[in-house]
Design a protein that fits this description.
The chain has four helices and 34 strands. By secondary structure, the protein is mainly beta. It has a domain of 174 residues. The longest helix is centred in the N-terminal third of the chain and has 15 residues. The N and C termini lie far apart (64 Å).
Length: 412
Amino acid sequence: MKVKIILLLVLGSCLLFSCHENDSDYADYIVARPLTISKADFEASIAVLPPKYIESSGKIYAYKKYIFVNDKFQGIHVIDNRNPNAPKKIAYIKIPGNVDISVKNDYLYADSLSDLIVIDISNMDNIKEVNRLKGVLNENVVWPAEADFYEYGDFDYTNEIVIGWETTTERRRVEEYQNRFEGNFFTMAEAFNDASVGQGGSLARFKIVDDYLYAVDNHNINVFDIQNLENPKNLESVFAGFDIETIFNLGANLFLGSKSGMYIYDITQPASPTLVSEFQHGTACDPVVADENYAYVTLRGGNSCGATASELLIIDIKDLTNPNLLKAYPMDGPYGLGIKDEKIFICDGASGLKVYDKTDVNNLVELNHFKDINTFDVIPLETSLLMIGEETLYQYEYLDNKIKLLSTLSLK
């Protein structure tokens, strides 16, 4: 009887005090789970299909009168933009593991994990794969930077390939988050093995310059000679550092954004990029664009991007060998950015699209702020601005001092 009384007292005290969990013990976290495909199906999986809804919008690319929108890790949506007031979806190219594309003279280059795919788009009614270079993108494994947890369950290393990730927001214990890198997470990571050219956004990992395609993976600049557009030559890759994320071209230089800094490479000898200089910053997700005098870098802290505060950095690059931080502006959670003439466009995540006059980089003047939209990346074109965010394509018209919305296209 005494034992029973003691147990009841302990149970009661648990309910009233220490055994009761508080809401503060839990928080909302982003959980990533792998999208898999069998190795047998992987190579035979490129297909041109009718238009479909998008599952998770990624990067955008503009070429002639067409817009290409990446469906993260799954393929490319093709949009006819001959009438910017009423764009329409016309096709979907299924490419497992796809993250980036670049186009020259009607040949589209796309990644499919570590393979480089060449697709002929000269006839939009007859899009066709013409080449596959196997295993040439050395370390092209893209992890979702926004994820707090990776759940890989019963992944079969022998017979399956991870082509990407799907993410959900789930409530988890804070203690579990703090211990999230314990166990065999890293074991899994080690097991994954001009008018003729279109324009990508600041989050691009592919860049065509003249007769060369530069494709960055986590550590390298992969270089391809594309003088024969249908049959690229895989040249020697250049080790560029760690956690390389983006690539931007200005003249004879490549600007690489990484989680720890910005790297400038000279491509005067296009087959052999050489390091000019680097600018280091705190750990954060980091796209970069540049003009003749300044590089513009958005840093997004938090989650696996790092602990650095979110901000826009303006870096003086008049002397390319010695880049220096000129000014930092606070942001909320920026992703892509773009520049055109005196304007700078910043996708500040859930805080919307922000437009500034950068005539005086020490004193940016806000021209527009489009709120209540979740923004991801932008492409400033000659006469209009393209933006992708939350499964919607936005197009804006340039005005003298501002921009105004031209059209939207839901990709759902």
